Amino acid sequence: MGIESQSVASLHARVQATLNGEERQRGQGSWSPVERYLDPVRHEKELRALRRLPQAVDAASRLESPGDWLAKSVHGVPVLLTRSKDGALRAFINVCRHRGAALVPEGECGQGRERFVCPYHSWTYGTDGRCIGRPHDRDFAHAPKAEAGLVELPCTERFGLVWVVASPLSGFDWGAYFGPFGREVEELGFTRASGVRNRRSFHQPSNWKLVFDANLETYHFAYAHRETIAYLFHDNVVIHDQAGDHHRVVLPKKSFNELDGPPERMEGYARAMNVIYFFFPSTILLWEGDHINGFSVSPVSAESSSVDAWLIVPEQHANSRSADYWKLNFDMFWKALDEDFELSASMQAGMASGANEALCFGANEFPCERFHQSVERIIGQPG
Ligand code: FES
Ligand SMILES: [Fe+2]
Q: How much is the pLDDT for 5?
């Protein structure tokens, strides 16, 4: 059930009970061994497991028109995204089926393409991935052209972003993957028509999981964010839900206390609360009323990762605010988030010091441990 349909009133009552001290959501205290953030063998296992799960990779608006394309590696797999003539968005492994050269250079994008020609021997592919031509076709009787199409990957558009699974799994069920929290984000107005206004990509010198440890608890707000956003939020409040491996954390602001009662719709909370949607394994969407600040993290090595971030605007606010307004929101968000990323980097730098055999999660930080349980489970599965 979505956040609108299950009634804003019940969420309101829950937040109020938490702020009054009548409810106090807590879990088990736990330990997170430092090997989780250091071990290169484990890193390889994680990478293989992550390749079988969705990752938000870029703004759908970068692939709006037929012929648009973009090459970007996802968890170390080179991916080519295309918008074909029929309007479908597709993802392929950016590797030629002849002898494996890259079709287009990593990191590049373009428009108006009708075909992709391999630079090595000119095998040619349509934007739908079919092999449509190759020189001296007679020499390849053993390798039928019909079977020489690019390897397709599961791919979809949700909340203004392109999501890809970096393994060629057939029949991937996107509806089941996004589940109730996905429906909730759509109910909040972040449909296919949402647009990305601001973006940013950067290298993060820490294990990818440290980033999510930092974003699944509120214990640090009052201290790590004392110069930025701490004054806005209640201290050490946990209002957490889980759907499968995905998490939702409601963050009531101090201004929540000024509301007379539950608003009719979630939009009424625009200034009174934020909501974190964490889509396991690696994407966070933070709802801030008239926009979402989202980012995804991809491991590069055990001790480093790459981050892509976007400010997403729903259709109803496409023209209601200025570019400066969105930029200001994006910069404010990243001023606070940079504090988390810097702390994660400092934790990584001290990880091998021997000070801790394991990191300590309090009963208030239980969503972090739940996240690690999910990671343990996926790396234990046969890849
Ligand atoms: S490797 Fe692509 S055509 Fe030969
Ligand atoms: Fe934070």
A: 44
Q: How far is 56 from 313, CA to CA, in rounded Å?
A: 16
103-113, pLDDT tens digit by residue? 999 999 999 99
Residue with CA at minimum distance from ligand 1 atom 1: 99
Q: Whose CA is nearest to atom 4 of ligand 1?
A: 121
- The CATH architecture assigned to 62-165 reads 3-layer Sandwich (2.102)
Q: Hey, is 293 helix, strand or coil?
A: strand
The tens digit of pLDDT for each residue in 323-373 reads: 999 999 999 999 999 999 999 999 999 999 999 999 999 999 999 999 999
Which homologous superfamily does the CATH classification assign to the domain defined by 8-52+174-380?
Naphthalene 1,2-dioxygenase Alpha Subunit; Chain A, domain 1 (3.90.380.10)
What's the pLDDT tens digit per position in 195-252? 999 999 999 999 999 999 999 999 999 999 999 999 999 999 999 999 999 999 999 9
Residues with beta carbon inside 6 Å of ligand 1? 96, 98-101, 118, 120-123
Neighbours of ion ligand 2 (CB under 5 A): 340
Spacing, Cα 118 to ligand 1 middle (Å): 6
Angle at 305 between CA 214 and CA 219, to 5 degrees: 5
